[in-house]
Specification:
Layout: H1 14-23, H2 27-31, H3 48-58, H4 62-71, H5 74-83, H6 91-100, H7 104-113, H8 125-128, H9 134-150, H10 156-169, H11 175-189, H12 193-207, H13 212-225, H14 228-237
Helix pairs in contact: 3-5, 4-5, 5-7, 7-9, 9-11, 10-11, 10-12, 11-12, 11-13, 12-13
């Protein structure tokens, strides 16, 4: 996994970080969050780019990240994903945060910017795929999707075995689960020729399913995986 730089966070309290977020917030931006299916009842209205700039100045701090997460504010939880140290993240913390995901943006940001960099990431896919909550279950497939994109050293066998998780979840018709399952399948199929063949075979089985959600997942994934652009890109990787 990607190594992180040593912690360099200035000595700021959770309250000070939250105050700084409030200072750069925008009511207009907050009101527009609904367009992206992000709840704004506990949000200030701060663009992601602004949060990432703030996080970069703060550096890494596991303690600060936990405090920000516990505050419950949308932007504070986003910041927690950006400032936490993957080397200090524990399996218990991952489970707790995953169960507390309440929207797709928090789920995906935590998985793509923090959890996929931890040494525990691969152990969480199967148990999380059994979670009942929509965004907790999405966490399993957002994390798998992220690993397919970021974990360059993972073996093909790991991704091949994860296709079974995708097939089992492919009938879940909840919007935010369905889309993450689909993106994970597509990302695996774009890693290399071998995984492409396995992912296409999975997508074809789903496309022939009697279940409407599974058919959608299969057909939608095949549209990209069978495209000439994906085939050309994979040919160059040979």
């Amino acid at each position: 996994m990607k190594k992180t730089k040593p912690s360099s966070a200035p000595d700021l309290s959770v309250a000070e970080v939250i105050a700084a977020l409030k200072k750069v917030s925008s009511k207009k931006y907050r009101d527009g969050m609904a367009r992206f299916a992000i709840p704004s009842d506990k949000a200030f209205g701060v663009p992601v780019g602004t949060m990432r700039q703030m996080a970069k100045k703060l550096g890494r701090s596991h303690e600060l990240a936990e405090g920000l997460w516990q505050s419950g504010w949308y932007e504070a939880r986003m910041m927690a994903a950006f400032v936490d140290d993957p080397a200090e993240v524990t399996p218990a913390q991952m489970d707790r945060w995953c169960r507390e995901f309440d929207n797709w943006a928090i789920c995906d940001t935590v998985c793509f910017h923090l959890f996929d960099r931890t040494r525990h990431a691969w152990t969480k896919l199967s148990p999380w795929s059994k979670y009942k909550g929509e965004f907790a279950k999405r966490g399993a497939f957002a994390l798998l999707w992220s690993l397919a994109v970021h974990d360059k050293k993972a073996s093909d066998e790991k991704f091949a075995s994860s296709l079974a998780l995708i097939e089992r979840a492919a009938t879940d018709g909840r919007n935010f689960v369905k889309k993450a399952v689909n993106m994970a399948l597509r990302a695996i199929g774009k890693r290399n020729q071998s995984l492409h063949s396995l992912a296409v075979a999975t997508a074809q089985r789903l496309a022939e399913s009697k279940d409407a959600t599974a058919r959608w997942n299969g057909k939608d994934a095949l549209r990209e995986l069978a495209s000439s652009s994906v085939k050309r890109r994979l040919a160059k990787k040979k």
